[in-house]
Amino acid sequence: MSVPTMSNAWSDAELGLRARRYRQLRAAWLADPERRDLPRLLQERDAAVGGLRELMGRFLAGAAPLRQLREFLDPWAPEHLLLGFVGPVGIDVLDRFADDGEPGEVDDALRVALSLPTDLEDALAKLDGLATYVETLRSEGSSLEARRLPYFVSWFWMVQDGSWRPIWPSGEAVYSKLAWLPSRSAPVATRYRTYTALRASIAERCGAVSPAPGEIEFDEVGGWLHYAERAVGMDETLPERCARARTLPHEPGSDPTEDAAYREALTNARVVQAEVDRLGRVLTDVVAAGLGTDVELRRPTDLGVTHDTSLRTDAWVAWRVAGVAGTAPSIRLRATTEGLVVALDRGDGTDAQTPDVVGAHLDAGRAGAFDTLVADVMDVVATLKPAFDAYLQR
């Protein structure tokens, strides 16, 4: 397998920041005593796929029909949950192909897509080709969705050769939420290319700290974080990213060099806002408990200041009392060059340029651990609550 690098996808500076954040995430994963035993998991996977690998060879050679592959996998997948083929991006996709495709035609389409690629470009062509076939089936009434294909197809590549790593859905979802990857609405080949490039780049920069290779660790850390968002605190690179935003162009330029710099700024801004969004999600219950009422989370509608192409140099989310219409006070969390600020926004429309009338900077070192971040946020919210309640009653 040729490792995709996509060296032009991100700058060295951007990859360096991501590598530092990844090490922070990996450290939290390693510290979790309930994390999965990765070497044991890989041994069980290898032991389980033997029979399937033999049947796959026969299917790809035309000696076994899709029906036989389906009959094998329908009971096999629930019996081997660690292999991750149960659900809407695994066995359900195979069932839809078998039910909705024309016998013979669907077999041929899957044989082309599921056979091992010769290189990255061949892999992308296989994904695009199967996505085109799915659109044909959809035009005939099928409920198949092309967005489910990157995992489905790459999983079968892994069964045949473990060096072809699948795009695990939970990991892709996590890294997309960090704004490191495009959303699942992006073309399937783009998603596969970008994920594999990011995985290879992070593995090259960060290596491995377990018996498993770095690329497998990357998948495992992403899958773990999908269920453990509360195990990690603030991204330690957040203050540096906010400082970097001040040095990058806020608007696109007229020449390619300036446009590249603006795209770098846009990438940075998306990562900053994504991290503040994540903190907003995991701290919502904390703020609600501190205020003694249900709250709803609000965020900017875009990354702009005055229009779509002029970027902010900070990021924020805000918690308001749930169900309150019109103007209302909120507790606002902002990312700055010094770290995080928790403050009261009066919500009365005055002093619009500096809405935070009271607040506190959180210690950046303490904010990096979730438990101390929670404790500090609770302390600040308790301090702000009397003023918050007073503005709420106006």
Summary of the model, kept short:
The protein is α+β, with helices and mostly antiparallel strands.
SSE run:
HHHHHHHHHHHHHEEEEEHH
Flag low-confidence runs: 1-7
* Helical segment count: 15
Can you tell me the overall shape? elongated
Q: Average pLDDT across residues?
A: 89
> What does the largest sheet look like?
5 strands, antiparallel
Strand order of the largest sheet: 1-2-3-4-5
Query: Helical content, roughly?
Result: 55-70%
Structure description:
The protein is of the alpha+beta class and 394 residues long. Helices cover 57% and strands 8% of the residues. The chain has a five-stranded antiparallel sheet with strand order 1-2-3-4-5. Helix 4 runs antiparallel to helix 5 and helix 9 packs across helix 11. The protein is elongated. The N and C termini lie far apart (65 Å). Residues 1-7 have low confidence and may be disordered.
Compile the SSE list and pairings.
Layout: H1 12-31, H2 38-48, H3 50-60, H4 66-79, H5 91-100, H6 105-114, H7 120-139, H8 149-160, H9 169-177, H10 188-206, H11 214-227, H12 238-247, H13 256-291, E1 295-298, E2 315-321, E3 330-336, E4 339-345, E5 356-362, H14 364-367, H15 370-392
Helix pairs in contact: 1-10, 1-11, 3-4, 4-5, 6-7, 7-10, 9-11, 10-11, 12-13, 13-15
